[in-house]
Design a protein that fits this description.
The chain has 220 residues and is mainly alpha-helical. It has nine helices and three strands; from the N terminus they run βββααααααααα.
Length: 220
């Protein structure tokens, strides 16, 4: 939710077929087959955790396929029969319950029997975080709204960005959407290495051209 802006209501219906890996991120199709269908992305950090989660399910005996739920209802890892046969997706109530437990365990919230609204929404706060980082990263406003699954009125009838354009705009916010500092530093290092490789290749190309000129002149 934090790295893709997905509403909590869009999570339970997600299947593995709704994921498409582009470079080191996933493009996610939300509300597949409905009038509200749209596409968004998640960070390399989130992608790596999702891959690890799916791999753990496979190691525990689940036969994953494209129709398998992306987020599965909790199961007992000692009950292999349950793992193999239980294909129920996690519900909104189940996700909310897990969030409540995590909020209390992390100390972000304390037990309070008051019915008053909390300062930060339990699930919607992640979506607000996503929106803020997209704005701070100067993502194209129309693309930002599309990543959030919002209709953009008359503009949407004429403006149809390609998946590549959507990805390029999303990538502007990846660093701000990355939670773990270690992952952020790793990404920065990979980018620097890629730039240096490009510079080395450019120098190599220039050197080859220079060598060809010298050989041509020597023959004359």
């Amino acid at each position: 939710m934090a790295s893709s802006g997905i509403r909590i209501g869009g999570l339970p219906s997600l299947r593995i077929r709704n994921l498409e890996k582009i470079n080191n991120v996933y493009k996610i199709t939300v509300y597949e087959g409905s009038n509200s269908q749209y596409e968004t992305f998640c960070t390399p950090e989130c992608t790596s955790y999702m891959d690890a989660y799916l791999e753990s399910r496979t190691k525990n005996g689940e036969d994953l396929n494209i129709d398998s739920y992306l987020i599965k209802d909790q199961f007992d890892i000692t009950d292999l029969e349950q793992i193999r046969n239980k294909s129920k997706g996690l519900t909104i109530c189940g996700i909310e319950s897990l969030l409540n437990v995590l909020l209390l365990k992390s100390g972000v919230r304390v037990i309070n029997h008051s019915r008053n609204r909390k300062e930060i929404a339990r699930a919607h706060g992640f979506r607000k975080f996503f929106t803020t980082q997209c704005i701070d990263s100067d993502i194209n406003p129309e693309v930002r709204e599309m990543l959030l699954g919002h209709k953009i009125g008359l503009t949407g009838c004429y403006y149809r960005p390609t998946p590549g354009k959507m990805y390029n705009e999303y990538e502007k916010a990846v660093d701000k959407l990355t939670i773990n500092e270690e992952n952020r530093l790793k990404r920065e290092l990979e980018q620097k290495i890629q730039i240096e490789k490009s510079q080395i290749e450019a120098l190599k190309s220039d050197f080859e051209k220079f060598k060809e000129v010298l050989m041509y002149r020597s023959k004359r």
